[in-house]
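lol so apparently i was supposed to do this last week
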Amino acid sequence: MGERAENIEKQEDGSFIVTTNEGTQHQAPSVIIAGGLGSFEPRKPLVENLPAFEKKGIEYMVREPKLFLNKRLFISGSGDSALDWTIYFAENSELPVGLVHRSDMFRAHKDSVDRVCQLQEKGKIELYTHAEIKKVSGGSQLESIELHQKEREPKTIDVDYWLPLFGLSPKLGPIGNLRLEIEKNAIKVDHTLNYQTNTPGVFAVGDVNTYPGKLKLILCEFNETTLAVQSCYKIVNPDKKFTMKYTTVQGVKDFEKVV
Ligand SMILES: Cc1cc2nc3c(=O)[nH]c(=O)nc-3n(C[C@H](O)[C@H](O)[C@H](O)COP(=O)(O)OP(=O)(O)OC[C@H]3O[C@@H](n4cnc5c(N)ncnc54)[C@H](O)[C@@H]3O)c2cc1C
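anyway here it is w/ flavin-adenine dinucleotide bound
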């Protein structure tokens, strides 16, 4: 508990060993993956040497606003997060904030878009629409960005920070490395039978799986889990007869004695 499953290996005897980030190993005849949407990661722009300046002037979220106050700051994006932070820094910083967006249609609330226009008129925001940052440069820290704007020559601007705020996307993370068949960032399962993956003995239930008609609803996921657990029971107890029992009729006490 409190550990992250990082690897799953099939053994010669057909069982599986799941290894966590702490090195703990669990061995079992079958595995049910219920990892939800995994972890969320920021959507990153396609800029060649971006990783070289991550946490060295390029940040994907604002953890400590003070860090960016009175700095040469550029923000990219068109959603609420990008506009809310642009407005915050424009209102609180002594320097204007650059806001860069690929089109001139914003996804953020209309109130925020109106406020951006007001602050632009006051010279607190430098707004670049139909524009993209395509190159970043610097030494040990980010020093400049290259701004490409439609029908204009690219220009290099000296900055302290660039915040590409393009939202978050769910990532399977470690689960995505298990050599399981992945579609649309989710694990493909056999929805006609028991939500088994392409690896026999490994099942995936809940938000982590995908199949035609998938609904990410708790009700549906109870059904998926029930069918997967039933199949696991048969793998664990190949010689035992499975008998369906209703808790409403007999309760769950002494269940083991009758099966
Ligand atoms: C805003 C919102 C409202 C919703 N409202 C409803 C509703 O009204 N009715 C309804 O039916 N559904 C609703 N849903 C959907 C429902 O919440 C999900 O379908 C359900 O919670 C999915 O359950 P899960 O167990 O698959 O995933 P989760 O609940 O996401 O649980 C997955 C768990 O696995 C853990 N995990 C991930 N990767 C690893 C790893 N490698 N190792 C170990 N642990 C890991 C995560 O930390 C997490 O604890 C809503 C969803 C949202 C976002």
